[in-house]
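Example complex used in Figure S2.
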Amino acid sequence: MARVVVDVMLKPEILDPQGQAVQRALPRLGFAGIADVRQGKRFELEVEGPVDEAALARIHEMAETFLANTVIEDFVVKVESEVSAEVQS
Amino acid sequence: MTLDTVKHADETPDVEQPWQELGLKEDEYARIREILGRRPTGAELAMYSVMWSEHCSYKSSKVHLKQFGEKTPANDAMLVGIGENAGVVDVGQGYAVTFKVESHNHPSYIEPYQGAATGVGGIVRDILAMGARPVAVVDPLRFGAADHPDTKRVLPGVVAGIGGYGNCLGLPNIGGEVVFDSCYQGNPLVNAGCIGVMKHEDIHLAKASGPGNKVILYGARTGGDGIGGVSVLASETFDDTKPTKRPAVQVGDPFQEKLLIECTLEIFKEKLVAGIQDLGGAGLSCATSELASAGSGGMRVELDRVHLRDATLSPEEILMSESQERMCAIVEPEHVDRFLEICEKWDVIAVVIGEVTEGERLEIFWHGEQIVDVPPRSVAHEGPTYHRPYARPEWQDALQADDANKLPRPQTGEELKDQVLKLVSSPNQASKAWITDQYDRFVQGNTVLAQPEDAGMVRIDEETNLGVAMATDGNGRYAKLDPYTGAQLALAEAYRNVAASGAKPLAISDCLNFGSPEDPAVMWQFAEATRGLADGCLQLGTPVTGGNVSLYNQTGEVAIHPTPVVAVLGVIDDVNRRTPIAFAEEGQLLYLLGDTREEFGGSAWSEVIHQHLGGLPPAVDLDREKLLGEILISASRDGMIDAAHDLSDGGLVQAVVESCLRGGTGARLVVPDGLDAFTFLFSESAGRAVVAVPRSEELRFTDMCGARGLPATRIGVVDGEEIDVQGEFSIALSELRTAHEATIPALLA
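Predicted assembly (838 residues):
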């Protein structure tokens, strides 16, 4: 099985209250030097069968209609290496 | 990228400007050039275009809205009327209450969660800006057909957004409505109301007077929210390489708003502000021009001092941004340090962006260069006024002639029973608990009544138990059949709901949702509805304190039903005297108050059984409504009734089913002489209520009704575990409960 990752981020212009909360907390905890924080979501999809063009098209559709709210979010689809390889490492 | 300064605009009069893309008409653009004596700069064009939009200038509606001022009834309770952020009424014991309803329809269709959430945030800031602590919210909602797939996208998002934002603020949601109708399919109505409480001396107004006073912007940083329109200006005129078209969606941060509320209330308490305004639609353009024109007129703003979330924003975009959770205050110089100190304590960003000046110009600078030099009144108040043509639509006669009273009626007891079950389980008449349970109705511990009661009610003084009640109502089906009467029926129903809870109606706010004003038929509906509402308020003695107009609610050429939503605010001296809807005590007598006629036009029965809309809506008699209200309030105060439920859509049977299910008891009903069972159960005649009277109070109650001339008919008794209509049918409570409560979860959960 192969793993496909969908990263979802709020569009750059959209307010990110969670990211701002993290950013405000950083200096309080002694972590200096961070100008901005944006927080997103990561989906790891274990795909049955080959990750071919048809499978990726399906994942794109899935991301566009369900995983991401494209009115306010962008997403990126990435194919990762075989899952088994990662388990061994 | 060249900055379009005032000087530059002077020197380049012939530059093409994207006024059309910004929604301005040719004559409007010409008028701006005439006012300024030159072409506007990009920033000025941005300000004028947004402030002269329908949303901000009320250019199509204001010729009709002025009736609300002209027909204001004499009412000692009014402290602040139309024109401020929200109206204020006196509720006694030194308290004043401010309330308002606004729409957030279009944003909620695009992005249901954030659209609805920021709708709540916006109305809460309006109330805060008057000097009041927000204490409760209400949400009148309208969606497309309940079984349409898109409703399943829009409704859960809207409900979660309202719940999420309101619950985070710690504000109870005490009422509202949920209505389904396919006319709202492509254009749901998300209206939001808020109630705030203060002492009389705490009222604050939106004005900037006193040259030398500082202008402080505080709250969230400014980002590129809600400036989809103006991106035309930024990208096409000044910088073709700008990458994204800015989104029209705003994202709210309720925790930031909570800080803003507490911070602002502390600032009020120390009397540090001379004027204040929230930032909503049109952002800084609106706040600066309105504050300046309501004061002495002069203001100077250094726009580059504004804290930004996105450093690439152009000055035009900063002026137009609708970033949420921001306020603008006018502060005397000696109070500035303390003001900033309080903001810092609450972790709220605050910066002095300018000052009030002598003279009558609003001047805005960007890194030392002047980009705006305008008379602020011309931006805020002297926008275009349209006398749009209006005409009674051709189809109106045919619609009214299609008489619902002629529809086939149930003939047997079995048919009646079947139609009762269909009625109470239809999406519009079914229990909305699945929706309202997602809102926190009791946070703060002052909620006395909330959904599904007739009106929401909160206690505002823990010592004296003084309370306020609010109900919102609107029936688009009635208004479609006759907009004048429909608007009055909305008013009458909300008034009746407040009175049924035991509170005395004082004043109203409205949210007028209509289609395109460029359609003469829609404009006629609007003109009729506003006339009906103004006449009705005059007769009932409840002034309009403010509200909101939402136009262009349509999908393609098809407008929504005209939907005037009315919120009535009432006061009750002691919330322990409130009247709930529940029939809880077996043996109590049921009385029907008012007259029942054969009135089925626009009724729930005609919709559910025949999918029909036609005929005339029920007749309105506002003097009767007033009398009914007085009886309900007196009976509540003197302990003559234990329950009351207003009769509206669905008629008597709907009210009795709701009251029985709420109390967990049954009822035995007898059809009164002179009425047939069908009319008795399903008619929607206005000016009626059903009450439960303890036997010991019966004589006192009927004597009071008799003496004051209100028809009161004994129709049955609270008893058993079924609803039994003598000689017709009976239905077990458990069967009714399943029918009433299963519908909405089955469709949406």
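The first helix of chain A runs from residue 17 to 28. Residues 83-89 of chain A have pLDDT under 50 and may be disordered.
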